[in-house]
């Protein structure tokens, strides 16, 4: 290692979910932690008796800790439940570690715990263990939460980031960018007034409905499921394009974006494809079954605006091409640097 390498430091961009995050994982964590179960998917798939278990962990440091549509407690349950669900696994048990800043109001902590309990009950998962640490004033931004979860993989389900194939349709389970837009507005940095509520939601029921609608032999046709959290749908698409070595073509006119979110993005020059979601999935499945999956999704509580937004191609491997509303084609810029607004 050269002296120049020794001088490199972690930047906020390393936590933004884009190119720098991927490089950090590859160059440091995968370098030292590599083993047969180490994964770039949302959860590791592990043998457990005669079945398969999904195992994952996630940290939450959102600011502000409370926002329209939820708070950090609800978010911490949804994030881990959804990561397990994306692997076709029914969430079973969670553990929870809290780092609380000295001076944090006990009533606020109770509110967070209540949201966590209600969200866990909706998802059908139990919080069974945890840890509590209290940090000095200024050492933590109010409260940080880490949740770890384990789930049971459904028979026949094996979605993974490297399974996207030419001929797949790309589905989103609802309008995109609402969580990122909500956090941006909640910080009042731009003095913009807009009615936007986070899409934060537990999505096991959404995933289960798709698999339950297929015959047992066809469940493997759901090739990829990802939740579009940090970095949004655009980052997910680039991750899958890289992992599966395929190209992606998006149809801009078909991407669902709420009018208020579209308006905020227009004012600030943001792309809703790179705004975080906390209740939206990106699904890759063959075109033959995609309309059926969309029909099933539109009957669900959190997926009524599901839509097919693009397709997988054998061309432009590792790239995402957007067909604009006026019929031209442009390359979606690869995610890199500090993705705004920063949600964690």
Structure characterization notes:
The longest helix has 18 residues, at about 105-125. The strands form three sheets. Strands 9-11-8-12-10-13-14 form a seven-stranded mixed beta sheet, with helices on both faces. The protein has about 350 residues and is an alpha+beta fold. The mean pLDDT is about 90. It is about 30% helix and about 25% strand. Helix 3 packs parallel to helix 4 (about 105-125).
Strand order of the largest sheet: 9-11-8-12-10-13-14
> How far apart are the first and last residues' alpha carbons, in Å?
30 Å
What's the average pLDDT?
92
**Strand-pairing-aware structural class:** alpha+beta
Q: DSSP helix count?
A: 9
Largest sheet: 7 strands, mixed
Helix and strand element order: HHEEEEHEHEEEHHEHEHEHEEE
DSSP strand count: 14
How would you briefly describe this protein structure?
29% of the residues lie in helices and 25% in strands. The protein has helices spanning 3-6, 19-33, 72-85, 106-123, 178-186, 204-212, 232-244, 259-268, 290-297, and strands at residues 44-48, 51-60, 66-67, 70-71, 89-101, 126-135, 143-153, 168-172, 224-227, 247-251, 281-286, 307-313, 320-323, 329-331.
Break the fold down into its secondary structure elements and pairings.
Layout lengths: L2 H4 L12 H15 L10 E5 L2 E10 L5 E2 L2 E2 H14 L3 E13 L4 H18 L2 E10 L7 E11 L14 E5 L5 H9 L17 H9 L11 E4 L4 H13 L2 E5 L7 H10 L12 E6 L3 H8 L9 E7 L6 E4 L5 E3 L13
Parallel strand pairs: 5-6, 10-13
Antiparallel strand pairs: 1-2, 2-7, 3-4, 5-7, 8-11, 8-12, 9-11, 10-12, 13-14
């Amino acid at each position: 290692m050269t002296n120049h390498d020794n001088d490199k430091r972690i930047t906020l961009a390393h936590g933004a979910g884009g190119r720098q995050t991927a490089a950090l994982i590859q160059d440091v964590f995968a370098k030292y932690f590599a083993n047969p179960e180490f994964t770039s998917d949302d959860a590791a798939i592990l043998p457990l008796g005669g079945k398969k278990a999904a195992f994952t962990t996630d940290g939450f440091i959102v600011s502000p800790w409370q926002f329209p549509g939820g708070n950090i407690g609800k978010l911490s349950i949804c994030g881990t439940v959804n990561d397990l669900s994306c692997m076709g696994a029914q969430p079973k048990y969670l553990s929870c570690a809290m780092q609380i800043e000295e001076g944090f109001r006990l009533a606020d902590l109770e509110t967070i715990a209540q949201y966590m309990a209600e969200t866990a009950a909706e998802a059908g998962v139990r919080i069974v263990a945890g840890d509590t640490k209290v940090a000095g004033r200024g050492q933590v931004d109010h409260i940080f939460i880490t949740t770890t979860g384990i789930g049971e993989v459904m028979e026949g389900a094996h979605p993974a980031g490297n399974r996207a194939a030419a001929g797949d349709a790309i589905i989103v389970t609802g309008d995109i960018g609402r969580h990122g837009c909500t956090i941006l507005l909640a910080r009042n940095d731009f003095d913009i007034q807009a009615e936007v509520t986070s899409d934060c939601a537990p999505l096991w029921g959404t995933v289960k409905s798709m698999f339950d609608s297929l015959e047992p032999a066809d469940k493997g046709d759901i090739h990829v499921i990802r939740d579009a959290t940090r970095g949004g749908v655009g980052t997910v698409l680039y991750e899958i394009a890289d992992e599966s070595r395929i190209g992606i073509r998006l149809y801009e006119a078909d991407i669902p974006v709420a009018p208020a979110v579209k308006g905020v993005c227009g004012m600030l020059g943001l792309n809703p494809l790179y705004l975080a979601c906390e209740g939206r999935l990106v699904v890759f499945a063959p075109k033959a079954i995609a309309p059926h999956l969309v029909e099933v999704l539109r009957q669900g509580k959190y997926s009524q605006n599901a839509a097919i937004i693009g397709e997988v191609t054998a061309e432009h491997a590792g790239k995402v091409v957007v067909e604009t509303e006026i019929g031209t084609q442009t390359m979606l810029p690869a995610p890199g640097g500090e993705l705004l607004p920063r949600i964690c």
